[in-house]
Amino acid sequence: MTKLDQLLTKLTTSPVAAQQPANPHNAPQTQLETGIKPKRERRPRVGPAAPTPGSEARAHAEAWLQSIREWHVKSSQAIVVGDGPARSNIGRMQVVGIGSYGGPPGGAFVLQKLSTPIGWLSERAVGETITRSKQPCLERLRKGGGPSTLIDDRGGWRSDREMALTCAAALLTLAAELGDGQAQHHLEVVRRVASTSS
């Protein structure tokens, strides 16, 4: 046996060589062969988590925030036609477009409607309700400012939680005043969350 053969025999019978497979394609794959536990496979969630009262209130307030912030308005024209007989005491001066000489009163007017989570509402009514509320958050949102969202990337309240809860309460109060039937329930949830986080 030559020195080279002795060296090869020594290398192949050493404990280090015994641990490493000679051919990487035939490497052991099971836990029994390697002694190492395989990493757990992450399984994707089957469906979304069940909504909680807090997450529903957050989502409802967020819908109102986006509605007020975007302020998407459409115009609709309404025609009013009088249904009574022509008035005999009408003078010759008439405002153009408002009735006809001696005929029943009539005319046309334009309604501005704002898109909200509960449908199209009068822009003027929403604007007046915001002004009456004297909530700085609502005024900023109406002008396109204020927070862009109340929700963080994980689905919870944004990092400035106190501001988010204050704004959510203002939005849900506005929604309740405008006739949103669910807003009052969500407002109570937001107030409970705010009182526990103080």
**Order of strands across the widest beta sheet?**
1-2-3
* Uncertain residue segments: none
Discrete helix count: 8
Terminal CA distance reads: 84 Å
Largest sheet: 3 strands, antiparallel
Portion in strands: 5-15%
Shape: elongated
Features:
three-stranded antiparallel sheet, elongated, 3 strands, about 200 residues, about 45% helix, 8 helices
Layout: helices, strands, pairs:
Layout: H1 3-13, H2 15-19, H3 31-34, H4 53-70, E1 73-81, E2 106-116, E3 119-122, H5 123-133, H6 136-142, H7 161-177, H8 183-197
Antiparallel strand pairs: 1-2, 2-3
Helix pairs in contact: 4-6, 4-7, 4-8, 7-8
Explain the overall architecture.
Residues 1-58 are annotated as: Disordered. Residues 1-31 have a biased composition (Low complexity). This protein has a domain at 56-83 and 97-197. The protein is built from eight helices and three strands, in the order H-H-H-H-E-E-E-H-H-H-H. The chain has helices spanning 3-13, 15-19, 31-34, 53-70, 123-133, 136-142, 161-177, 183-197; strands spanning 73-81, 106-116, 119-122. A three-stranded antiparallel β-sheet has the order 1-2-3. The model has no long low-confidence stretch (mean pLDDT 79).
